[in-house]
Design brief:
Number of strands: 13
Radius of gyration: 38 Å
Shape: elongated
Number of helices: 19
Oligomer: single chain
Strand content: 15-25%
Helix content: 40-55%
CATH superfamily of the largest domain: EAL domain
Structural class: alpha/beta
CATH class of the largest domain: Alpha Beta
CATH architecture of the largest domain: Alpha-Beta Barrel
Length: 504
């Protein structure tokens, strides 16, 4: 290569690294002997240590430039460009910006999915929203929050995603909360899943971060139409703020359980998460809704949502007892809250299994009602479900006198084969009935309805008892039951479930 050709790579590299700014008053400095010997090499001779095949002229020039920037000790001072960049601060800002972008994208996807579900208009695919709020943990942690925040966020997101169905969508709301679209759940089912997520997050935070459970995690559910209407015509940022206002107006559906929890881990695993709503019950003789029956849901270990009679395990008295106890306690609490708030509450018809009253519980549920003031007991009708596997019919006659003194009245749920109505009347039972959700009932056909189910009302009336038919899903069955003389009716064909037993 000659001087008029393009400089080679090493020469350009040396120019870039070692170029010095010209001095205003340059002075000549004597060169050390080592430098003079390098500079005085004959042009064209290879520089020491370089391959002879390397361009001799260029190698000599690079060697000379290196010699020119050496100090008196023969060391080369590498030129450093001034960089105004703080790694921790700028890299952190970059991470925050990237996280904010991801959050915004997730919220846009969420909004699009919300709109899609709304436009689809399929009631069976109605979506529900849930917000997990870690604000309380942040306040509790104080200075430790920065170290705990990322881990807490990761735990919450892991639990949420584990519980999601393929059609669900999750998006971060901010640094410590999420919004979830349950695209195929009813509001009742969404509350159950939201509560399960909240409690599981609490357990994980307690186990992995040592955060005590004082209700730090909250869950809220609202219907998608309310959410959509709140954000109609809003910008993406405004929509997120409007969603938060909607959630703030809802009740926490996973409040921390008061007092010490005595359920062991194995039983809790079998039990899963239990949710309770209320079925408005029509009093056919008066034509009004005046009674509410607890309706249970259970999210089991397989992430299935089981409802009504199907929520109770076939042969697990311990789990059945915990579910019955939860229904009874929730009903008592709901009436107490309503009366304190000056609201008008209906009568509560709580159906409990025979085993929960006298076999498994050692009378714990009966003691719950025994402790109530007499004027408070009048709100509760206790039903005894005799369809408990492995429990003999004789236990019914033991349970009746045990619970009767501590409630308004007692009813008995029976099978279609039951015939001893007169004995129930002598035992001062007020009503007898059938729940169509019980597995023993099976598929309801015109024949089974007219021959096995509807005649119960006639037999009950003959013995001086009221009668009820619960879990009615078809309007034609509701009409037939009313015509047959049933006193009390409930189910989806009568009225939708409510979160509270309040009479409007």
């Amino acid at each position: 290569m000659t001087q008029d050709k393009k400089p080679g790579f090493l020469k350009r590299l040396a120019d870039a690294l070692f170029e010095e700014e010209p001095e205003q008053n340059p002075t000549q400095r004597p060169k050390p002997a080592a430098q003079r010997s390098v500079a005085e090499q004959t042009v064209g001779d290879p520089a020491p240590g370089l391959d002879p095949a390397f361009d001799n002229d260029e190698a000599a020039q690079i060697s000379a430039r290196l010699a020119a920037v050496q100090d008196e000790d023969g060391r080369v001072a590498v030129k450093r460009a001034a960089v105004d960049w703080d790694f921790d601060e700028d890299f952190g800002a970059l991470a925050v910006a990237e996280k904010a972008t991801d959050m915004a994208v997730s919220q846009v996807v969420f909004a699009a999915k919300l709109q899609e579900v709304i436009e689809k208009g399929d009631k069976g695919s109605a979506g529900k929203l849930q917000l997990l709020n870690l604000d309380e943990i942040k306040r509790e942690a104080g200075d430790r929050w920065e170290q705990m925040a990322e881990k807490a966020q990761s735990i919450a997101e892991q639990v949420i995603r584990h519980r999601l169905a393929p059609s669900d969508v999750v998006a971060p709301y901010d640094d410590h909360s999420f919004i979830v679209l349950f695209a195929e759940l009813t509001e009742e089912q969404a509350r159950l899943k939201a509560a399960a997520i909240a409690r599981e997050v609490r357990e994980r935070l307690l186990g992995e971060l040592g955060v005590k459970d004082h209700g730090w995690v909250k869950a809220f559910v609202t219907d998608i139409e309310t959410l959509q209407n709140a954000s109609a015509g809003a910008t993406p940022d405004e929509a997120v703020l409007s969603w938060n206002k909607v959630f703030e107006a809802e009740e926490d559906c996973a409040p921390p359980l008061p007092g010490p929890q005595t359920i062991d881990a194995d039983l809790q695993s079998r039990l899963g998460e239990v949710g309770i709503s209320y079925r408005p019950t029509l009093m056919t003789t008066k034509g009004v809704i005046g009674i509410y029956a607890p309706h249970l849901l259970r999210l089991d270990a397989l992430n299935r949502i089981l409802m009504g009679a199907a929520a109770f395990p076939h042969n697990d008295a311990a789990v059945t007892f915990e579910m019955d106890k939860a229904a009874a306690k929730r009903a008592v609490d709901q009436v107490r809250i309503a009366l304190k708030a000056g609201q008008r509450t209906g009568l509560l018809h709580i159906t409990l299994h025979t085993s929960s009253l006298v076999t498994h519980s050692s009378g714990l549920i009966i003691d719950m009602f025994r402790a109530l003031p007499p004027e408070f007991r009048r709100f509760f009708i206790i039903g005894i479900n005799t369809q408990t596997p492995g429990v003999p019919q004789t236990k019914l006659w033991e349970a009746l006198p045990a619970i009767q003194p501590f409630c308004r009245s007692v009813t008995v749920q029976v099978t279609t084969e039951f015939s001893d109505f007169d004995r129930l009347a002598r035992a001062k039972v007020s009503a007898v009935g059938i729940d169509l959700e019980e597995p023993d009932i099976g598929e309801i056909t015109p024949t089974s309805l007219t021959r096995a189910i509807l005649p119960l009302a006639k037999h009950a009336t003959k013995a001086g008892l009221h009668s009820y038919l619960y879990g009615i899903k078809r309007r034609e069955i509701a009409r037939a039951a009313k015509d047959a003389g049933f006193t009390y009716l409930n189910g989806p064909a009568i009225a939708a479930n409510t979160a509270q037993p309040i009479i409007a």
